[in-house]
Amino acid sequence: MTSIKNLPLVSVIIPTYNSAKTLPITLASIARQNYPNIEVIVIDRYSTDGTVEIASAFGARVVQKNTERAMAKNIGLLLATGKYVLFLDSDMELTSTVIHECVTLAEKDPLIGAIVIPETTSGLTLLAKIRRYERQFYHNTYIESPRFYRREVALKAGGFDPIVFYEEATLAYKLEKLGFKKGRISSYIIHHEEHMTMTELIRKRYYYGRTSHIYTTRYRDYARFQLNPAYRLRLFFKRKFWEHPHMALAVLALKGLEYLVTKLATLSRTT
C-alpha cells in the first residue's frame, strides 16, 4: 500500500469573503476525499461572519488579504507547497474522487498542465434550475475552465491575470501558449447556488463586465468563443437543447440579459 508521504501533495486554495454559510460544505467535502495528501489554504478578505473561525476549525491555513479573487488565488499559489494546486470557490462541494482522479491523470502525462473538473449547479430555485440546465451544454468546450494545475508550470506562467472578468480562464490560456495540454476528469464539482438571487447575479455580471475589455484584448483567442452568442447557440442546438423547451427558453432569456448587462458595464467605462 502506498504511504501518504509518497503521494504528491495537493494544495487546495480557497478565496473567501463572508462565506460562513457555504464554506463548511466545501471544507467537509475536501476532508471526505479518497486522496489523503492534501493541504488547505484559505485566502480571506477580512470576513466578519465567522469564516476565519470555520476555516481554522477544519485545519486550514488562513491568510487575510484585502484583495480581489484573482490576486487571492495568486497569493495561495505562492504559499502552496504541493506539487499540484486546486482552486475552489467557497460555495463548491467536491465529489469524493475528484482529487484522486486529477492526480492520477496528471501523473500519467507531464504535458498536462491543467485539468478541467465538470461542474453542476445545486438548488431548487428557478434560477438554480436554469443555470444547471445551461451548464450541461458546456462540457468539453471553451466555456469550461480548469481548476486543477501543476503548480510549477502555473508559477512559470505567472498565475492568474488580476482581472475579474473570466479570470479563471487566464491561467489556462497562458499554459496553452507555453505548450501544455488540458485534461478532463469525470468526477465533478457541485456548485451551491441555492441562495443566489437574480439581483445578485446581475450585480455580479455588471461588476465583472467592467474589466471585460481587458480580457477581450489580452485573451482574444478564447474570448472569440466565450463571448460570442453564436458560439453558445451552436453548442445549445447541437446537444438536444430543445428537449425541454421551457428550460431552453429560460436559458436564452437569462443569457440575453447577462450579455446586455455586460455590454452596459463595458459602455459605462467611457461615460
What proportion of the residues form beta strands (DSSP E)?
15-25%
- Inertia-based shape: globular
- In the CATH scheme, the class would be Alpha Beta
Q: Considering DSSP H and I runs of 4 or more, what fraction of the residues is helical?
A: 40-55%
In CATH terms, what is the fold-level topology? Spore Coat Polysaccharide Biosynthesis Protein SpsA, Chain A
Reported for the largest beta sheet, the result is: 7 strands, mixed
Q: Which architecture would the CATH scheme give at its second level?
A: Alpha-Beta Complex
Cα separation of the termini: 64 Å
Strand order of the largest sheet: 3-2-1-4-8-6-9
Series of secondary-structure elements, N-terminal to C-terminal: EHEHEHEEHEEHEHHEEHHHHH
Q: What's the Cα radius of gyration? A: 18 Å
**How does the helix and strand content classify structurally?**
alpha/beta
Quick one: how many beta strands? 10
In round numbers, the mean pLDDT is: 94
Describe this structure in words.
This protein has 271 residues and is α/β, with parallel strands linked by helices. It has a single domain, classed as Alpha-Beta Complex (Spore Coat Polysaccharide Biosynthesis Protein SpsA, Chain A). The protein contains twelve helices and ten strands. The strands form two sheets. The chain has a seven-stranded mixed β-sheet with strand order 3-2-1-4-8-6-9, with helices on both faces. Strands 5-10-7 form a three-stranded mixed β-sheet. α2 links the parallel β2 and β3. The longest helix has 24 residues. The N and C termini lie far apart (64 Å).
